[in-house]
Design brief:
The complex is a heterodimer of chains A (about 110) and B (about 110). The N and C termini of chain A lie far apart (about 35 Å). With about 110 residues, chain A is an all-beta fold. Chain A is globular, with a radius of gyration of 13 Å. Chain A contains no helices and 11 strands. Chain A is about 0% helix and about 50% strand. With about 110 residues, chain B is an all-beta fold. Chain B is built from no helices and 11 strands. In chain B, strands 2, 4, 5, 9, 10 and 11 form a 6-stranded mixed β-sheet that branches. Chain B starts with a strand and ends with a strand. The chains are: A mainly beta (about 110), B mainly beta (about 110). Chains A and B meet through strand 4, strand 5 and strand 9 of A and strand 4, strand 5 and strand 10 of B.
């Protein structure tokens, strides 16, 4: 029972480099999302998707792209990494219904130098 | 738009003592309220969530929370802290049908002293 799987767990990038954070879920959830977690700020929503082919922006989308070609996968792309993107990134998934629990991956700790 | 305020970024209790983590919300409609726990180097997992069926909600690991509409609060409690409760706790609020409008508090780190 894998749940939500994120890779990699740790990553160090140089300013200007690009990379993709992977997220996969095996619960057939329609809704998937990406958050970043910064000290004292809780979790902030970057992008989300309510189904394959449908994505939308959250609170802090600048500098990130997403796509959803399958129900299972929701990768997050950093186009040109900046030190301000140093953070812990979480992928989450849930059903599309009221008052529903979100399931989280274990996170990716990203450092941009 | 809804928001959540967690009072106290750090709370320290002795093992066996009462745990009280505070959460106040603002919402223009009756909210959906959640408490999540994050153990070190792990993702968040659900502790409990409010449903309109009862104002006192019981969750996992002996935690419970009480919804008080008049105080716009959803404080988390546990009668007796255990060392394994040391973690970061997040209160979250959602108004809508999807989780895209879910807003998290800044988190409270709980330390349990032996």
């Amino acid at each position: 029972n894998a749940g939500v799987t994120q890779t990699p767990k740790f990553q160090v990038l140089k300013t200007g480099q690009s990379m993709t954070l992977q997220c996969a879920q095996d619960m057939n959830h329609e809704y998937m999302s990406w958050y970043r977690q910064d000290p004292g700020m809780g979790l902030r929503l970057i992008h989300y998707s309510v189904g394959a082919g449908i994505t939308d922006q959250g609170e802090v989308p600048n500098g990130y792209n997403v796509s959803r070609s399958t129900t299972e996968d929701f990768p997050l792309r950093l186009l040109s990494a900046a030190p301000s993107q140093t953070s812990v990134y979480f992928c989450a998934s849930s059903y599309v219904r009221e008052n529903t629990e979100a399931f989280f991956g274990q996170g990716t700790r990203l450092t941009v130098v | 738009a809804q928001s959540v305020t967690q009072l106290g970024s750090h709370v320290s209790v002795s093992e066996g003592a009462l745990v009280l983590l505070r959460c106040n919300y603002s919402s223009s409609v009756p909210p959906y309220l959640f408490w999540y726990v994050q153990y070190p180097n792990q993702g968040l997992q659900l502790l409990l969530k409010y449903t309109s069926a009862a104002t006192l909600v019981k969750g996992i690991n002996g935690f419970e929370a009480e919804f008080k509409k008049s105080e716009t609060s959803f404080h988390l409690t546990k009668p007796s802290a255990h060392m394994s409760d040391a973690a970061e706790y997040f209160c979250a609020v959602s108004d809508g049908y999807n989780n895209n409008d879910m807003r998290f508090g800044a988190g409270t780190r709980l330390t349990v002293k032996p």
